[in-house]
Write a structure and sequence with these properties.
Layout (H helix, E strand, L loop, with lengths): L1 H14 L9 H17 L42 H15 L3 H14 L4 H11 L3 H13 L4
Helix pairs in contact: 3-4, 4-5, 5-6
Length: 150
Amino acid sequence: MMRRGVVLLLVAAAAGGVAVGGAGCANKTQRAKASAPATALVGTPRPPAPHAADDPAFFTLDQIQPAVTLAQSKRRATTAPVSLDALQWYAQAHAALARGDRNTAINLLERAAEKDPSSPEIFEDLARAYGASDKALKAYEQALALDPDN
């Protein structure tokens, strides 16, 4: 109980609401001095810190040496339309996996893979649904063959 009273007294004194010393005019000037800097800082934005012109943290992309180049994707462009059945089965498989029904998800993903054998996403999700098995390894290899960058 004593500790709580001391803490409250110190918090109030820091806020300028309670005089810790004696009473009278001296406390009023101390409170005014203590509260003046605190109110001046409220809402005042700080100026940004200066930085050196050659600081790499502030370089633009064209200032970075050597020039950054991205590797070209090895994935083939797909212009063939996607089978709507495969897309529907893929979506239903995701819903089945979300509710924990792996067997239904595997069946749906296998059907989707038969309908759209060029989709690495289907094979990757099929491998996840298989879990730790030889079938999962084969499905991952198929997904990697279709999209080596993924």
